[in-house]
Write a structure and sequence with these properties.
The protein is mainly α. It has one domain. Helix content is 55%, strand content 0%. It contains four helices and no strands. Helix 2 packs antiparallel against helix 3. The longest helix has 19 residues. The protein is globular and about 35 Å long. It starts with a helix and ends in a 6-residue tail after the last helix.
Length: 89
């Protein structure tokens, strides 16, 4: 499941959707920690992406769903929001 969330992160960040990318990398990271603990190379990279998802080399390649981390909604069903189709600019 962690790898699935990481793949979703990669799609979101390539499209410039920082809000969903941040949510997906958090989920991927948390699940991976449960499975492997925090001391491995992959989690070191993911930890950096948690701090700033735009550091991923594929950030904004497409700019299709571009937005900021600040648009992560509060008080809504996170599972519904994160999988909704992003609005294009």
């Amino acid at each position: 499941m962690a790898e699935t969330y990481f793949c979703a992160f990669q799609v979101a960040i390539a499209h410039g959707d920082q809000a969903r990318a941040k949510t997906f990398i958090e989920r991927a990271y948390n699940l991976r920690v449960i499975c492997t603990g925090e001391d491995n190379d992959r989690l070191c990279k993911w930890r950096k992406l948690l701090e700033d998802p735009t550091k991923d080399e594929s950030f904004g390649i497409l700019h299709t769903w571009e937005n900021s981390i600040r648009i992560i909604p509060n008080g809504v069903d996170d599972d519904k929001w994160v999988w909704e189709r992003a609005k294009t600019t």
